[in-house]
Amino acid sequence: MNRFWILATALMGIVMGGTAAADGSAEAGATKAVVCQACHGPQGHSANPEWPSLAAIGAPYIVAQLQNFKDGKRNNPIMMPNAMSLSPADMADLAAYFDAQSSPTGEADPSTVAIGEKLYHGGDPAHNIPACEACHGPNGAGNESAKFPALRGQQSVYIAKQLHDYASGARGTGPNGIMQTIASRLSEDDIHALASYAQGLR
Predict the structure, then answer these.
(1) Percentage helix, strand, coil, to 5, in the chain?
(2) What is the pLDDT along the chain (202 residues), one digit of tens a residue?
(3) Taking each helix axis from N to C terminus, what angle separates 88-99 and 59-71, rounded to the nearest 10 degrees?
(4) What residues make up the domain containing 190?
(5) Domain-located, residue 20
(6) Which of 38, 69, 99 is the last residue of a domain?
(7) Cα(139)–Cα(199) distance, rounded to whole angstroms?
(8) Single pTM value for the model
């Protein structure tokens, strides 16, 4: 069996195992999140398709990404200086606040739903692409304990940009590099269909 399918099967077991609670204060985070809402929207629902919605995306994932921006592991001219001033407690509080908000909602492009649905739930064995749901869950709710972000309702433009960044190596994902490998095997049509399908997940 291909190693990517073995990994996908193992990760599915993790996804179905529950989520981890944030150790920050959502109440404290609400005050600290005022600055974040200028880009990421009220309650973390972004109105700009190029900026991600943070609502219910996963507290551990938010903390990890804020730390990556602070450490320079992710390069973004807006996020890097903002993250530099955050303490571990600030990150935990912001993550708790955004994770406590309701998931964003969006619509998928009807013309690509069939392609996106097939890839998201079944992958593409011919190109060694595992199903996205193995890590991000059947309904796109993610897996907090594994720091796999929720994708449901996320901006499709943003998702497509991240897939392109993974494929080019502009964005990394830890030691196993699974997202770089998967993204590099996706066609432009695949990326559009997956990003749109995830935006429409509930």
Answers:
(1) 55, 0, 45
(2) 444 444 444 444 433 333 334 489 999 999 999 999 999 999 999 999 999 999 999 999 999 999 999 999 999 999 999 999 999 999 999 999 999 999 999 999 999 999 999 999 999 999 999 999 999 999 999 999 999 999 999 999 999 999 999 999 999 876 678 999 999 999 999 999 999 999 999 9
(3) 140
(4) 3-14+105-200
(5) no
(6) 99
(7) 11
(8) 0.87
